[in-house]
User: What shape does this take?
Amino acid sequence: IEDLCTSTCDGGLEDFLVLEFLKIFKESLVKRALFLIFTSMRPKQWIKNILVFVALIFSKNVFDMAMLAATAGAFIVFCFVSSGIYILNDLLDIEKDKKHPVKGKRPLATGELSPFIAEVIVLTILSGCLIGSFFINLTFAITVLGYVVLQICYFKFAKEIVILDVFFIAT
Assistant: This one.
């Protein structure tokens, strides 16, 4: 945008105002996109991941700084991996969600967030989480990978079969 204006502008006050408007417009678009992505990540659901701290409490390792750091890392990874899964679910169910009274208001269903951007975000989040989980430990990385595979299997195969749906939700 700025390159276009600088090549066609003569430097007057009007040109300056147009450039400033375009900068503000561009910044507001970026902020809106980040808001839509963040909303799609469903941060209200992150509270569920606090359960990773339960093992730390019951093992009486709350004051072990290495264990606390690893558990905090696991919490962050699970928050983001679950967010990636939520966005993936929205991508896979986009047509059904458009017809739903509540889900139809989600950024992908309304068309405010493009499926391409959502796909890039999902790939970035999930690959980043898988890589990050290896820094915690191999067992945790396998757990995260298992969670992702389980969720994808649920979306693709088990969601429509009632008894399998119940089993997958229970896990």
Q: What stands out?
A: Residues 105 and 152 are 23 Å apart (CA to CA). Residues 1-7 have pLDDT under 50 and may be disordered. Residues 13-40 form the longest helix (28 residues). The chain has nine helices and no strands.
